[in-house]
Amino acid sequence: MTVTGERAITAPDSAPPSALPALGGSEIRRFAESIISLHGRLSFGRLPDAIDGEPLFRSTDTGDGLLTLSLRESQIPTRYMKGILGFRLAQYLRLGWISDELVYQEALYHEPSGAPNTVENIHTVTLDEASGRIVGYIGLVCSLDEKPMPLDSPRRSRFPSESAHHVDLVSRFAEPGLTSHHVFEIKRFVREVDMARTDQRWRVPWHLILGLCGAALADGSVRLVLGDSKEHGALRHFRLIGFDPVVVENTEPRLARSELMWPSYNQQINAKPFVAPLPVRLADYAEVIRSSLEDGGGGRYERGLAARLSAARRTLCGPTSQSDKES
């Protein structure tokens, strides 16, 4: 479903250029490169034994040397949490989607962590088992509301994508019993930028999606997800696994230049905001991904997985879904 030009939130004023002091570009870049290098050396091989309690999801042995874990934030020791946030920062610095100038000014070596809340963020990481390095990440970001709020409440806190695109994405789903504590934003769906073009490379996004599915099913509170993505990015992946997103077209996303993530919305082709209920048959799609990963195969096999997911959608939902028309 597509919605055009919908507006509901006042856009923030951009910081004037004079608000940020002029700094030497080479000095800023050296600092950014040192942060990237630091996080490239970290190993998380002991993370599985360090977490508090059972993970929401742990991948089975798929024979590809990758291990995926989905965890509530409170399960992750502080030192590992900083490392995970550092991986996110390093990848976005590589991509140019985060302000290296602000990273330098604030002397950041990991993304800022959110304040504790009554609901929790969920983090999914894929590790290379041989080195212990993180090779992929996806997050489910919870609402900032201390108490659960109706989705159409004017006092409900806005999610990051709503603020960046200046739209209200979730109020259309308002119904009794569904609150802001049932809504999560998909954030930082990223694979290690410099990962070698081996069979592992294509598998990482599907490991992450499988982990996200497993986490959402195990947590039980995730009923609605939102985010923003380009058409051939996360939107394509999520349509393949049964999501039927409402996509808002023709927004003009921007963040003030005092925001770390402002460069991610300063692109020729910007991401589109979307929102979707959790598919009823999500477990069935997750099983297709799991079995496909266990079957093996290289980069060409990814097209086979996409075909298997499209066939599963036609079986589960009928042949008239938008994703089937696009397949």
Provide a concise account of the structure shown.
The protein has 327 residues and is of the alpha+beta class. It has ten helices and nine strands. A nine-stranded mixed beta sheet has the order 1-8-9-7-6-5-4-3-2, sandwiched between helices.
Spell out the key features of this protein.
327 residues; 35% helix; Aminopeptidase; alpha+beta; 16% strand; nine-stranded mixed β-sheet
**How would you spell out the order of helices and strands?**
EHHEEHHEEHEHEHEEHHH
- The percentage of residues in β strands lies in 15-25%
- Residues in helix, %: 25-40%
CATH structural architecture:
3-Layer(aba) Sandwich
* Strand order within the widest beta sheet: 1-8-9-7-6-5-4-3-2
Number of DSSP-assigned strands: 9
Main sheet characteristics: 9 strands, mixed
Give the overall form.
globular
Number of helices: 10
- Separation, N- and C-terminal Cα atoms: 16 Å
How many domain modules?
1
CATH fold-level label: Aminopeptidase
Give the CATH class: Alpha Beta
Report on this model:
The chain is α+β, with helices and mostly antiparallel strands. It has a single domain, classed as Gcn5-related N-acetyltransferase (GNAT) (Aminopeptidase), CATH 3.40.630.30. Helix content is 35%, strand content 16%. It has 10 helices and 9 strands. A 9-stranded mixed beta sheet has the order 1-8-9-7-6-5-4-3-2, with helices on both faces. Helix 1 (25-40) packs across helix 3 (78-95), helix 6 runs antiparallel to helix 8 (282-295) and helix 8 (282-295) runs antiparallel to helix 9. The protein is globular. The relative contact order is 0.15. Mean pLDDT is 85; it is low at 4-24 and 319-327.
